[in-house]
Amino acid sequence: MKNIRTEEQMNRKIAYDCGEKIAGARKELAARKKAFLLSMSVEDLKRVEEMSTEEAQAIVTKKQIWPFDMKNEKEKGRSYLMAFGIKMLYDRISPKAEDGISRSDYLQAILRLKEWTESIQTRDEMMDCFSKLRRHLELEGPKPWILLAAERNVRTAKKEYEWALENPEDFSEALLNEYGSVSAVINSYKTRIEEAEAALEEALKEQKQALQNPFLALGYRFATTFLDNNSYKAFRNKFLYENGNWNKWEAAVKKKADKKNKSTNSTKEKWTRVLPEYFERIGGREIQIKRPEDLLVIFGLRGAQFGKWVEDNSGGFHLKNTAEALADLADILAIQDEQISCGKVLGIAFGARGKGKAAAHYEPTLKVINLTKEGGMGALAHEMAHFLDNCLYEFSLGERTTGYASENPLGAKLPSSVQEAIDAVIDAISKGDAVKTVPNENKRWSFTGKFRQMYKLLEGNVAKTIAFFEKEYLEEKERLEKRLMERQDELNPAILKKRLKKIQRDCTKNIKKVQQVIAYIHEQETGEKLKDIPIATGKTYFLIEAEELDKGRKEPYWSKPREMFARAFESWVQDKLNQQGRRNDYLVTGTKAIIGQPYPRGEERKKINEAMDRMVCILQEYFFSQFKTKEKNATTKMRPKEVITQSIGTGSSTPIEERFMMESNGQLYLF
Q: Is residue 184 assigned to a domain?
């Protein structure tokens, strides 16, 4: 193997980089990030994205690209009114690129808006900027009224010209006097066509330019401010009625400072993995490993990376335990050791790429797992779940991607049975019969008779009655959304999104109201005043508790499908080890089924494990088999058949092929 040691690693015997050089070490990534923050160029952004999409997402934000501040505007000598107008625009920009918007478009849109506003000095210039933005955003839509009006003018001019050719006798005396002759009048109609066509051509050029430089990339709120008539009117009036003669700088700067000094606990984690005092491994094969090259050979890894502060002692600890953990995971999955890396694409890093408080993380761009020097133990199964989830989706598409099979439909390179198996796991994770409660507002409600009628038909069952009407509202929501999506080719994307949000908002409002109405009916019928109203959620407690952990966060983490899948996979791995009387705390630990923990428990855990069993079996047939090596080396051996059987099954000695599937006409069917 090529020597790729860093300067600090030259005298190390264990903790040194080997195999393929894994890009994106902290030092290299920091240099690329610094270059981007200095240049704010698309080229430097792409260089960061090549190493880490997560880091790119973290630095491509409104505050990083355009750190607008009222205090700075005052120091630059800008008038309060102009700074106020720019702040109105700035506040409506999305904090980061929204889903479906490329970071490069978002970056360029902010820089373009910043350039537009830089030279504005008067109220009229600011109003012109607002009008220009409104026109630009309108032209970015599929059927902008500006273009439709220009096309209509061309049609009208042509019809008028045809009329003039056919009816010269109908020309008025005033018209003839104005132009001097019939032919001159006809030529005037012809000129109108040329002018209308020129205006249309100009509008098309303007549209092309708008599409090449989209302001829609600034986000939903920014776009709807200008595209929605009522929002635009309110926005303009807010600026127009602001009295620029008042000296409001002090108040504006103080408000910013107060906001900065506010403390918040929104980012404080509500759960962290508790590591055992001593790491144990019970059972499992003995793995002979003396140096990092052995890890690469045995498990088909493409490279290993050690951080600057990971010395031989800690490096040796991580190396040995990682090898044993991957061997145990291969046993559980019933695959060859080399197959664990899905075609030699996985890289492993120890204390080389840590960020924030995460004990470990997976980078889908570079297909590398990083375990921190002190806290990465017990998280390898979780990160391997992310790796397999990502590789499965990538394999199905036949192209590089950072997406996950748990969050996206698979591509055509895998059969439908694989998608069905994954769907079954996701359903087991998210769909259940969990009941939650909401506080009773104890108000008097007016309602139609159908609510009381259904309550009685369902024998006074509050949860079932609410569930019935919730289903009705959700079905109506789907109908409205479908009808609206049929017009998506006609509507500006921002307006489409606004109307979809309104449908969702109205549905949520109706569901909340019906919960209170049924509780009120129950009180009228039985005299019982419910303190809390039971709600059948249709979800698992696993999902509900994840959503609870997400409360207070700016965006979901615990309830993301990929994270739910990874924690379900962890639980499955630990349960499989327990069934065999085995244990590996370095691979997985802390998935105890306790209320309030972010792991499945009880019957839900059992159902998830059963679905995971079937999915793994299908993956052996259609996914892992693609990475099987023809010849085995001395360090890599297939597990005995009894181990394979036990690792996927429930302890029975029946072969997995007979228990989980049957072959018929070349197709695979689940029982």
A: yes
